[in-house]
């Protein structure tokens, strides 16, 4: 239950892990807003941000695994993590459905992320009190 | 509530602007009001006569020309940036709304986002 003064947020991440600060800044922001009693409606990965949903990222053991950290936060709080299908297909991020559809040799989408269209982002535009964007290098 | 998407990077060097245009067209497809503001090097999106075939890219000019048909309310161009890049009535594509004060355009929209 959120307080009357709490807000609902959607975070949009367009910067890739290990190429930009976007995923970790967004993670710190998400933790802070949840601790403050606000609600996170959805996390939407777009553009290069889709790499955050890769199940195949394997950084050195002394570095933070940002996709794993994000997946854990989403699972713990049951927050939908949505990956834009057009951005994902261009960059080689696919779930089992898209693997079969395009007859690709493997799938690599990390749970609990899911693939959907920009319609989900439009829905957030309508529903969330705040949309916050985390971009990569410009 | 009209969403304003700001494009401040030149076309063809990365994919950010194209994906921002996809966002604009998606909003329009769901009957959500949306406009685009081009500023800085981003005004080069609006140059007429683009021919990127030699670099095997699709013309952003053609995509933008269809934006109005799909429901994008306005294509604003920062006048100062247009002057810097020598964009005028002869070199701009049709259907552009020049603005001398882009800050006021931003202020008049409740939802503003930059192309990543």
Task: Compile the SSE list and pairings.
The complex is a heterodimer of chains A (138) and B (116).
Chain A: E1 8-13, H1 22-35, E2 39-45, H2 66-77, E3 81-84, H3 85-91, H4 96-101, E4 114-116, H5 118-127, E5 130-134
Parallel strand pairs in A: 1-2, 1-5, 2-3, 3-4
Helix pairs in contact in A: 1-2
Chain B: E1 3-7, H1 16-29, E2 34-38, H2 60-65, E3 74-78, H3 79-84, E4 97-99, H4 102-107, E5 111-114
Parallel strand pairs in B: 1-2, 1-5, 2-3, 3-4
Largest sheet of chain B: 5 strands, parallel
Runs of chain B in which pLDDT lies below 50 for 5 or more consecutive residues are none
From the N-terminal CA to the C-terminal CA of chain B, the straight-line distance is: 22 Å
Mean pLDDT level of chain B? 94
Rg estimate of chain B, integer Å: 13 Å
How many beta-strand segments of chain A?
Answer: 5
Alpha-carbon Rg of chain A, integer: 15 Å
Report strand order across the widest sheet of chain B. 4-3-2-1-5
> What is the percent of helical residues of chain A?
25-40%
The structural class of chain B is alpha/beta
Count the E strands of chain B: 5
Features:
heterodimer, A: 138 residues, alpha/beta, 5-stranded parallel β-sheet, 5 helices, B: 116 residues, 28% helix
Explain what you see.
The complex is a heterodimer of chains A (138) and B (116). Chain A has 138 residues and is of the alpha/beta class. Chain A has 5 helices and 5 strands. Chain A has helices at 22-35, 66-77, 85-91, 96-101, 118-127; strands at 8-13, 39-45, 81-84, 114-116, 130-134. Chain A has a 5-stranded parallel beta sheet, sandwiched between helices. In chain A, β1 (8-13), α1 and β2 (39-45) form a beta-alpha-beta unit. The longest helix of chain A is centred in the first third of the chain and has 14 residues, at 22-35. The mean pLDDT of chain A is 95. By secondary structure, chain B is an alpha/beta fold. Chain B is built from 4 helices and 5 strands. Chain B has a 5-stranded parallel beta sheet. In chain B, β1 (3-7), α1 and β2 (34-38) form a beta-alpha-beta unit. Chain B is globular, with a radius of gyration of 13 Å. At the A-B interface, α5 of A face α1 and β5 of B.
């Amino acid at each position: 239950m959120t307080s009357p003064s709490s807000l609902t947020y959607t975070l949009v991440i367009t910067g890739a892990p290990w190429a930009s600060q976007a995923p970790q800044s967004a993670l710190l922001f998400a933790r802070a807003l949840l601790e403050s009693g606000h609600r996170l409606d959805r996390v939407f990965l777009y553009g290069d941000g889709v790499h955050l949903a890769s199940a195949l990222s394997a950084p050195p053991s002394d570095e933070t695994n940002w996709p794993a950290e994000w997946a854990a936060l989403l699972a713990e709080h049951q927050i939908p993590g949505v990956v834009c299908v057009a951005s994902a297909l261009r960059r080689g991020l696919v779930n089992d459905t898209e693997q079969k559809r395009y007859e690709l040799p493997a799938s690599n989408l990390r749970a609990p992320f899911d693939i959907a269209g920009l319609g989900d982002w439009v829905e957030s535009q309508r529903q969330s009190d705040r949309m916050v964007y985390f971009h990569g290098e410009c | 509530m009209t969403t304003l998407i700001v494009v401040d990077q030149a076309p063809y060097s990365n994919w950010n602007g194209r994906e921002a245009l996809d966002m604009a067209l998606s909003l329009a497809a769901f009957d959500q009001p949306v406009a685009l503001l081009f500023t800085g090097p981003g005004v080069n999106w609006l140059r007429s006569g683009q021919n990127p075939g030699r670099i095997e890219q699709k013309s952003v000019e053609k995509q933008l020309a269809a934006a109005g048909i799909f429901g994008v309310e306005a294509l604003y161009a920062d006048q100062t940036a247009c002057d810097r890049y020598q964009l005028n009535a002869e070199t701009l594509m049709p259907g552009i709304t020049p603005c001398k004060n882009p800050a006021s355009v931003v202020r008049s929209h409740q939802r503003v986002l930059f192309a990543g």
